[in-house]
């Protein structure tokens, strides 16, 4: 490994030192520097564009050119005559200034070469062909080469450190802007331009009156040959042990309508749409009252299905299909929609060692140990659909309607062994569904008065079922609490649960524009939620009959009706003064909660004033500092309030608290962003601090493996401090980045009726270096280091994870592409190495230039790593686990480009 890295660095260094730096200033005829002028250098021997630059606010530019070469330098600026000059490089750096003359002609200036990067107002435009390589196959490959853009492991796109909220193709939403589906499926050879739309606002009428500086969208412009034609690809593959892969995808774009079809069926562990993706997929829906100062999130009532580690498992079989369309019956009316279906079968195997800790004095001591072995089989069928209509009859009226539906059918069977309880069979099933509707109307009365009405309704129905069959009765400590019939061979307990949610959010906004620099915004809004929670624990006898637990020592049934309402009035003043944009404001809230259960009703009414402030300093066009403060009221939903016992799993019961009150948080955020087009340096950083009062926490007595927990309002303040930053710079064909994340949290628990202060400090450092050569092999080297430090009561734990990685991408003999990805993980405590493991994947593809056929051999987990290890530490529990993954396998595939 060390030899490979050393060789890569020597190759890169030799290529870097053979270059000459050309710098200078571009001015107009009276000596004023010209910002954002385009400068390109064309190699006169190869006729290729070897370097380019954009002048900064001082008119300075910089080019990195090959030594001993002849170049044609071309400078262009809107409204100026372009300049052309021949430049001969030697071995020393060159200083060269340019002066552009005013162009009074009406003719458009024709550039010999298109700029790789250009700026048009708030839009940053990348010419894809300037960055693409022959080995690039999808949008993700192209985006990773662009200065200032990052693609995370989860498929999210970040521009200058900010997450992209929407991805479009030809100005049409791609699956409602989902970035993961876009980066993994849009073919690289279809991309002409990548447009980064800063200060993006879907409602043009409101773009000048509300803060949208952090809103970023990406629009993909297609090559002319891909418009008004079907394009895409079909991939099919097979391998030993019945491995298979089928992956067709089709696209069609025209001015009037578009169609996207994506399918993927495989059992090689490639998951196009995970369960986590399903629940994170918003479908473009945003909370109407997300900035109101009230936080009331409807939590999931499921039983907590097991999740995969790093999207790996012992066996994964997935079938995925998705379709997206847009249609414009006329210029003022747009229709769009999508449907997504994902069916996944997953096998997981895990061995764990658990230590339950804690004593009556609150000190951490070794308590009861439990060794477990589990084999889990999951079935997951997920469905999403959405229809949208947007009607804009004129510039003063804008009407939107959306409906988003979710439906799923999930089951999990776990064959579980416990050293204390012997064999346990656990079954979990759930078939939830939800319908979310959104209606918006925006009206501009005149240049001074703007109105906006937004409303959103959610209907959700959840029905999680849990069943645990235990062969060992004597050690099951919940038997008396639940009143189980002990005259059975084993205990077979089950739980029915049903949660129904009906939630409405609505608000009316009015903006009065005082002048071009300031406006006043008044908001009248409401949030109303009604939830029904029903659950019951029962026993299934040996003969299969249902046994009602009438002798239970605690309440094992729930019949709860909970309603929440918030009516508020808000006011904000927005002022632009030079480099400053200041938006102070406040909102006045009238809250009402009503809780009916156990034959009684508990009601609470109160008022609260919540201030907020946003300040932004625009230091330069691409450099700003922002500060925000907000006070927020946080409410829990019905899942925390139901006082009847509810199973979390076979050894954990939860009992809600109907007297829970709201929590109050103070949130501060400071951020800095800078993107320097002169030297392609991207710097961002932010610090978040939050202090929460009366936070809902959990108390329990961890004296054995059996725990009954319940929530309460903590009298002690909880605090979190998070900082994140990254420095990235492009040096010609080289790109380097260095980043870090720091997270400190302090929260309070009640353990054995004593206060337990828990502190955690996590650090994550990232260093990455990559090349972007046209023909030479490209490499990526990186190192991730994470440090997790936990302080719990009288004990502490500290863990280190070292993760160096290296990737290679080689295009050779004008037809072959070789790719390899290597990752090594060393996981250790302060005293010893707990585990080492590594993964190596590689592929070799063959495709003749201009051929539609590609042949590929892929090898996954070449080192045949069997399992991953993981340690977890929480209040009352320390655990280590071994998690098994798919073995080494090979797949040969054929792809045909349509």
Question: Would you mind describing this structure in some detail?
Answer:
The longest helix has 16 residues, at 2-17. The chain folds into two domains: 20-104, Sandwich (Immunoglobulin-like); 338-897, Beta Barrel (Maltoporin, Chain A). It is globular. Helix content is 4%, strand content 63%. A hairpin with a 3-residue loop joins strand 48 and strand 49 (833-846). The model is unreliable at 359-366 (pLDDT under 50). 30% of the residues are buried. It has a 36-stranded mixed β-sheet that branches. Strands 9-10-16-17-14-15 form a six-stranded mixed β-sheet, with no helix packed on it. Strands 1, 4, 7 and 8 form a four-stranded mixed β-sheet that branches. It contains five helices and 53 strands. The chain starts with a helix and ends with a strand. The chain is mainly beta.
């Amino acid at each position: 490994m060390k030899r490979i890295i050393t060789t890569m660095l020597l190759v890169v260094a030799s290529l870097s030192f053979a270059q000459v730096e050309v710098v200078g200033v571009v001015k107009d005829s009276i000596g004023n520097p010209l910002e954002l002028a385009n400068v390109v250098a064309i190699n006169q021997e190869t006729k290729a564009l070897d370097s380019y630059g954009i002048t900064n606010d001082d008119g300075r530019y910089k080019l990195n050119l090959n030594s001993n070469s002849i170049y044609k330098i071309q400078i262009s600026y809107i409204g100026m005559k372009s300049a052309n000059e021949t430049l001969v490089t030697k071995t020393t750096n060159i200083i060269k200034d340019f002066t552009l003359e005013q162009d009074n002609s009406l003719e458009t200036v024709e550039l010999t070469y298109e700029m790789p990067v250009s700026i048009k107002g708030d839009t940053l435009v990348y010419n894809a062909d300037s960055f693409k390589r022959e080995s690039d196959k999808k949008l993700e490959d192209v985006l990773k080469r662009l200065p200032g853009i990052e693609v995370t492991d989860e498929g999210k796109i970040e521009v200058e450190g900010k997450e992209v909220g929407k991805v479009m193709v030809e100005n049409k939403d791609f699956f409602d802007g989902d970035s993961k589906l876009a980066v993994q499926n849009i073919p690289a050879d279809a991309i002409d331009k990548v447009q980064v739309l800063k200060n993006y606002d879907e409602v043009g009428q409101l773009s000048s009156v509300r803060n949208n500086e952090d809103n970023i969208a990406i629009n993909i412009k297609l090559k002319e040959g891909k418009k008004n034609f079907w394009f895409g690809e079909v991939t099919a593959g097979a391998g030993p042990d019945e491995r298979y892969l089928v992956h067709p995808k089709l696209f069609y774009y025209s001015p009037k309508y578009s169609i996207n079809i994506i399918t993927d069926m495989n059992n090689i562990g490639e998951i196009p749409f995970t369960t986590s993706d399903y629940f994170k997929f918003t479908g473009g829906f945003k909370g109407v009252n997300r900035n109101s100062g009230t936080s009331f999130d409807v939590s999931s009532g499921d039983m907590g299905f097991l999740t995969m580690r790093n999207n790996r498992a012992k066996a994964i079989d997935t079938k995925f299909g998705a379709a997206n369309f847009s249609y414009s019956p006329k210029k003022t009316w747009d229709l769009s929609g999508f449907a997504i279906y994902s069916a996944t079968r997953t096998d997981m195997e895990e061995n764990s060692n658990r230590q339950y800790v804690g004593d009556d004095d609150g000190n951490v001591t070794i308590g009861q140990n439990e060794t477990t072995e589990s084999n889990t089989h999951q079935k997951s069928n997920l469905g999403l659909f959405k229809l949208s209509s947007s009607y804009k009859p004129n510039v003063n009226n804008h009407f939107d309607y959306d409906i988003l539906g979710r439906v799923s059918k999930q089951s999990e069977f776990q064959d579980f062994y416990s050293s204390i309880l012997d064999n346990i069979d656990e079954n979990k099933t759930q078939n939830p569904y939800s319908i979310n509707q959104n209606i918006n109307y925006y009206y501009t009365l005149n240049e001074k008065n703007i109105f906006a009405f937004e409303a959103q309704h959610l209907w959700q129905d959840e029905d999680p079922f849990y069943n645990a069959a235990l062969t060992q009765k004597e050690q099951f400590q919940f038997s008396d609490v639940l009143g189980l019939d002990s005259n059975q061979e084993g205990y077979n307990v089950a739980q029915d649960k049903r949660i129904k949610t009906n939630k409405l959010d609505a608000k009316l906004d009015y903006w009065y524009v005082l002048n071009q620099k300031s406006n006043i915004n008044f908001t009248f809004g409401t949030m109303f939620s009604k939830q029904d929670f029903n659950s019951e624990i029962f026993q299934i006898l040996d003969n299969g009959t249902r046994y009602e637990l009438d002798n239970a020592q605690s309440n094992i049934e729930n019949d709860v009706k909970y309603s929440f309402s918030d009516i508020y009035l808000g006011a904000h003043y927005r002022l632009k003064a030079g480099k400053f944009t200041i938006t102070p404001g406040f909102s006045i809230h009238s809250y009402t909660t009503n809780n009916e259960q156990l034959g009684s009703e508990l009601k609470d009414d109160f008022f609260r004033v919540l201030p907020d402030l946003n300040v932004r300093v625009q230091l330069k066009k691409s450099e700003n500092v922002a500060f925000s403060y907000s006070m927020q009221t946080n409410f829990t939903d019905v899942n925390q309030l139901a006082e009847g016992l509810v199973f979390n799993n076979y050894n954990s019961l939860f009992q809600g608290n109907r007297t829970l009150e709201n929590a109050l948080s103070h949130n501060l955020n400071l951020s800095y962003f800078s993107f320097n087009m002169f030297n392609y340096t991207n710097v961002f950083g932010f610090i978040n601090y939050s202090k929460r009062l009366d936070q809902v926490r959990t108390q329990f007595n961890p004296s054995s493996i059996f725990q009954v927990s319940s929530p309460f309002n903590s009298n002690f303040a909880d605090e979190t401090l998070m900082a994140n930053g990254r420095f990235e710079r492009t040096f010609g064909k080289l790109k380097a980045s260095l980043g870090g994340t720091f997270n400190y949290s302090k929260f309070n628990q009640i353990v054995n009726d004593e206060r337990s202060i828990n502190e955690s400090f996590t650090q994550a450092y990232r260093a990455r270096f990559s090349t972007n050569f046209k023909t030479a092999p490209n490499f990526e080297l990186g190192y991730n280091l994470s440090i997790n430090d936990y302080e719990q009561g009288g004990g502490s734990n500290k863990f280190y994870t070292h993760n160096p990685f290296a990737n290679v991408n080689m295009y050779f003999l004008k037809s072959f592409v070789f790719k390899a990805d290597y990752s090594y993980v060393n996981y250790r405590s302060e005293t010893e190495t707990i585990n080492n493991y590594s993964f190596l994947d590689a592929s070799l593809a063959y495709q003749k230039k201009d051929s539609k056929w590609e042949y590929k051999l892929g090898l996954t987990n070449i080192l045949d790593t069997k399992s991953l290890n993981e340690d977890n530490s929480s209040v009352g529990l320390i655990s280590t686990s071994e998690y098994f993954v798919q073995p080494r396998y090979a797949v040969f595939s054929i792809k045909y480009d349509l």
